[in-house]
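Complex 262.
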Amino acid sequence: MGNLNGKIVFITGASAGIGAATAFAFAREGARLLLAARRRDRLESLAAELKQAGAADVHTVALDVRNRAAVASTIEALPSDWKAIDVLVNNAGLSRGLEKLYVGNIEDWEEMIDTNVKGLLYVTRAVVPGMVERNSGHVINLGSTAGDQTYPNGAVYCATKAAERAINDGLRQDLLGTAVRVTTVDPGMVETDFSLVRFHGDSERAAKVYQDLTPLTPEDVAETIVWTAARPAHVNIARVLMTSIDQANSLLFNRRQQTGLR
Ligand code: NAP
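Predicted structure with NAP bound:
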């Protein structure tokens, strides 16, 4: 891949799922990893494995991206040799609940909006000025097929990912004339803790989401993220929309028991 060796890669939501897999994929390229999540113990136990996997260095920060003041002060307080962030992966995010909008849980809505939209904005606002100053950098946002097409019972999660797409496109326009790149990677279903979190820990319900089909793996998405970062500096991949072979869009799946196909 392109030269990511020694580059500082900041990944939010690196304690699990796509974020953790992305940390390993960048580690294999010899990057320096700046990892954030609320569960710092998880980040710390990943750090040793990431170094073994090839990371040049690992620095972890406990951070709730919903906390605007904490985001600003955490970025401000980074050790001087971690400040020049080359790649920001805005990955921290979640879904909560799957129900009709008119009976939806308002606290769930707020958690999704605060994390997926406002949290992403806070981190972007704190990191991108440095990239502009250095005239170098890459922001990679995690979107979703959910932002491409709304599905029933998921209006608010889908709205947060539609907002992510608008922010991604707006940021790219606002950075025109600089060498800072902006990409959204928009996966369909990926098997992670995502559904467990969505259903507030109901593992039986979460398992049903992935039943009778092959979803994407976090590693599939991580490889794609690294691929976008490894393009030559003048190439900006605006958007990658990706699903497993068993998904056509956010509404249409091939569940083998039902379809009889493969
Ligand atoms: P996951 O396994 O549940 O991981 C989510 C990560 O986000 C965790 O590391 C979690 O860490 C972190 N996080 C959540 N709230 C946070 C907060 N307030 N502050 C800091 N970190 C926070 O889920 P995933 O599937 O990897 O999801 C990662 C991203 O991919 C999300 O943006 C999601 O919307 C997107 N996505 C997922 C799928 C899918 O099917 N799985 C599809 C398309 C897009 P802590 O709990 O330790 O803070």
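The mean pLDDT is 97.
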